Structures are given as structure tokens and as C-alpha cells.
Amino acid sequence: MSKGERTKERILERAAGVFNRQGYFGASLADIMEATGLEKGGIYNHFASKDDLALQAYDYAVGLVNDLFSEALKGKRNAIDRLRAIAGVYRGMPQGVPVAGGCPVLNTAIEADDAHPILRQKAQATMDEWQAVVRRVVARGIERGEVRADVDPDEVATLLIATLEGAIMMSKLYGDAAHMDRAVDHLEWYFETSLRMDSG
Amino acid sequence: MSKGERTKERILERAAGVFNRQGYFGASLADIMEATGLEKGGIYNHFASKDDLALQAYDYAVGLVNDLFSEALKGKRNAIDRLRAIAGVYRGMPQGVPVAGGCPVLNTAIEADDAHPILRQKAQATMDEWQAVVRRVVARGIERGEVRADVDPDEVATLLIATLEGAIMMSKLYGDAAHMDRAVDHLEWYFETSLRMDSG
Question: Would the pTM count as exceeding 0.90?
């Protein structure tokens, strides 16, 4: 990495936390300058606009979450184990793992759905990918006889993501991990009792 | 109602929609002026500051949601029926029923948790109330033999709220009611198969 690339990476890393905690509209250039220790010119050397920085910071934050999913899924073949691994990644999100401020998709979806079309598209694209991952795990599980044939992959994708994202909101609102723990426990129970072959 | 009270009510009604769609930081005074058709002075006649207006608009929006809960619960005595009634209210929220922009608690929690302590307290207070309602329904259901004695009221409160709030986010992000429908269907199934006395 060149010095310029390292600076850009550092801006993205810091800006991702600022936008994710404060929101796109709530984060000012002054906040980004403070978090990066750079002047306005030093930031706009690397980014064309606040929008450009926000979009790249979003991608950076989602990249960190996706890395955790990949790592959690590594070496796990069974569909139920893979679903449990995905849900397990969420346990850390209210505490700012891997990015301060919770889930960047949730934060961006809520802020942008009525107010910022480009950020909304970004959040939709990530949500498309995440749902596709869950659906694929379920569909392959059905093919391999690990998941009951009457399970609807779309339904599992919605439930897994909705339950965990709602639980991040509650755990962050209170600073209390109990909500997330209950959500993950419930999903694990649901996977074992309603999805696993020969259950139910 | 005096003319002044009617004007204040109309400002709150319009401002609630603006703040709920665009967020506290995303909504400008110009947006509120446009939505109400009033000049700055006409608004600040009734509210001390943007914070004052935002906090009262939040209460107004939550009041509309609470009215729907009261109406849905009216005449329902059985705990399972009451839980189904609460979940049913959520079906309209992604479509802006009763307030444009989805659930004011979700929107405020996400925006304020790291960025606006007073709004965060407001969202916590509503969430406290909503959880207390669900816990009370479950606890009374256990007393009356309608709900299994081994059910944990705290767990049901977290799951019901997290699943539905997450589903609002997904349905709003896509403009697709399917996510909310799956969430409500899942909860109804969960109430019937895991909470209802003699189930499971």
C-alpha cells in the first residue's frame, strides 16, 4: 500500500464508525475531521464529496461484517450448523463488533428508506446478498437431506434477519446484551425444532 | 379546541410524519415549514425549539400507535388472542399506518442510540412500556392457565418486538409487505405451538 492508500484506508475506517453511530445526516464533516485528525482538504483529496465518502464507508463497514460471516462459515458444511454460525455473528454487533454503532445495514436502511435513495439502494443490495446466502444454505440443506423438505427458504431468510436486526436495535437501545441473546437462542431452537430433518 | 390548539395539533401531526420519515437530523425546519404551510414564527409560536417540536412530535406519533394497540386489544381476554392482536397492529406499520415512515420507536432508537441522548431516553421509555404490556399479557395468561407455565414473559417480549421491528425495516426497505407477513405468521405459529397451554 502506498502512503495515499493507507491514508484513504484510515479515513474509511474512522468514517465508517462515525457514520454508523451518528447516521449520514447526523455526521458532519467536522465529526469526520475530528475522528481522522485530518483537515477538510486531506479528506477531499481522497473522496469527491460527503456522499462519496459515505457510500465508500458503508461498503467498508459491510465488508467487515461479511468477513465475519465468511470466517464463521469456514469449515461448516451442515446447513443447520451454517445457520447457527450466521446467527452467532450477530451476538457481537450491539457491542460494536466489527464496527462501532451496530449493524450498518440496519442503520442505513432506517435512515435512508424515506430520505436518501442512493444509500437506500446500497442497503437493499446488501440485504439482497444476505438473504441470498441464507436461502442458499437452506436450499442446499434440503437437497442434502439436512433440512426438512417443507421449509421455505424465503421465510427462513426473513425470520433470521428480521429477528436479529430487531434484537440489535433493542440491545443497543438499552446497552443490554440480553435481547440479542434471547433472539439468537430462539433462532437456534427454531432451527433445531422446525428446520432440522426429522424434527417437529 | 381554540384556534391556537388546533394549529399546534396540525403542526404536530405534520411534523410527526416528517421526523418519522426523514429522521431528526435529516429533517430541516424548511421541511417542517413546507409540510405545515407555516412560517418559522408560526411554528416557534407553539414550540420552544427544534428539540421541543421533535420530542412532542415523537410523543404524538407513539400516541397514534398506542391507540391502535388499545383498539386491537379491546374485548380480547385470552392471552394468546391478545398477543395475536398486538402482532396484528404491526402489519400496517410499513405502509405508514398510523404514521408515515414506519415505527417511530424503531426510527428513533436507531437514530438516537449513539447520537441524541434525550430522544434515546424517549425511545427507551416507550420500549419499556411496550415490553411491560407483553410481559403482563403473558404473566396473566400463565395465571389463568391460558399460557404454559414454563414460558418466560421477558423472552416473549423481546421476541415479539424484535421480530416485528426487524420486519418493518425489511418491508420498508423493499416496499414489500411479504417480510412483515412472514414475521407475523411466524409469531402466530410460535404463540400457538409454544405458548398456548397444552401445546408443544
Answer: yes
